[in-house]
Amino acid sequence: MATSSTTHGRGRPRAGSGRAGSVAVYAVAVVAALLFLVPFYLLIRNSLATDADITGANWKLFPTVLHWENISELFNDPAVPMARSMWNSLVVGVLGTAGQLLVCSLAGYALARVPYRHANKIFYAVLATLMIPSAVTFVPSFVLVSSLGWVSSLQGLIVPGLFSGFTAFLFRQYFLGFPKELEEAARIDGLGSWGTYWRIVVPNSRGFFSAIAVITFITNWNAFLWPLVIGQDQSSWTVQVALSTFTTAQTVNIHELFLAATVSILPLVLVFLFLQRYLVEGVAHTGIKG
Question: Could you tell me which of 111, 80, 103 has the C-alpha nearest to residue 159?
Answer without folding.
Answer: 103
